[in-house]
Amino acid sequence: MTSVILFDESTVRTQLLPFTFTRPVSGIRCGIMTLAEKWSTWLATQPSFLTELYLKTQYPFVKGNEYLYINGSICPDHELCDTIHTLPNHSILRNAKTNALLAAKTTSEEWDPAQPDESLKVYLYEKNYVAIEHLWDIYLQNGAQIIADFEVLTAGRTSALITDPYTRCYAPDTIFIEEGVTIKSAILNAEGGPIYIGKEATISEGAIIQGPFAMGERAVIGQGAKIRPNTTIGPYSKVGGEVNNCVLFGYSNKAHDGYLGNSVLGEWCNLGANTNNSNLKNDYSSVKLFNYSTQSLTETGQLFCGLFMGDYTKAGISTMFNTGTVVGVNVNVFGAGFQPKHIPSFSWGGQAEGFTTYRFEKAISVIKETIRRREFDLNEDQQKMLRSVFEQTRLFRTDASSN
Length: 403
What we know:
This protein starts with a strand and ends in an 11-residue tail after the last helix. It has 403 residues and is α/β, with parallel strands linked by helices.
């Protein structure tokens, strides 16, 4: 049996923090599916993971007789999958231009992508491919990945019908509705790209949606929402107000009015009413973003760049986030004025009030209550994972007190 393993490359994993604090690189959502779900669909098998030790209880490594290791940051396509399928045993595949490691096929369960293995024959891949290697890649590639995922997920299938007489569709042939969806008095415009609506999702009265757009299972779009192109609303998320070129991984809420642009939210995030972010600087210069490797701001080269928020983080009403803001895991942020460009994980407070450490036991209690409302439980392994994140990020927090 060949075990497909999606591995984390250490440099890329660091570049994708804070999202990779709580998941492997392949757990990131871009398009309709996560990267792991894409590989599962393309290879018709359930992959496992080679990731950080503290994540392995949630994302295990499954043993086999031989192993196909695939770089977890890569989005599959026909040509790359064909090449990987034909990769001989005891060989590796590298990017011909950058020498980046794309895949390896070996019988060793001890193979380490960070260590050179001269016993493996090297093959070079000459063609282009898409990889999610920086935070801004998630929203920059999202529209194209919605289109790619749409083709795979809807091939040979028939969309459920939209029965509401007051909903208007443009380019209806590129709108796909799963079963159990509720849509009332909405405008769905797929002229610029496909629209995918997941099972039992709800689109409320007066919502306006432009494709490319994807909406996960049981997600909700509120009344009068304005959803601009290249946006993904992950499963069980709730969205209102104006959203432009954003990705919500899942289970997160931006249910009220306010603007969110060129931004990425992890899972179980909540933005209070009238929360807004800036995605464009007044002087039209490129945006700098906090880098976890250097613990300083790094040039992105992007004119439009908004908010990146780790899992379980909450923002109070009327919170304002500046261009290129990175907020860690399990933060409770609130108060007047623009928030700092980086807020460390497990912080409590705001720019005006100052920040303290979010006491771990209290943070876990809030998480349990948050997910209980959706009929989920926080198990012991998840708590241990969050404890590890709390300890890893201790040095980023500057105070000695706790809330």
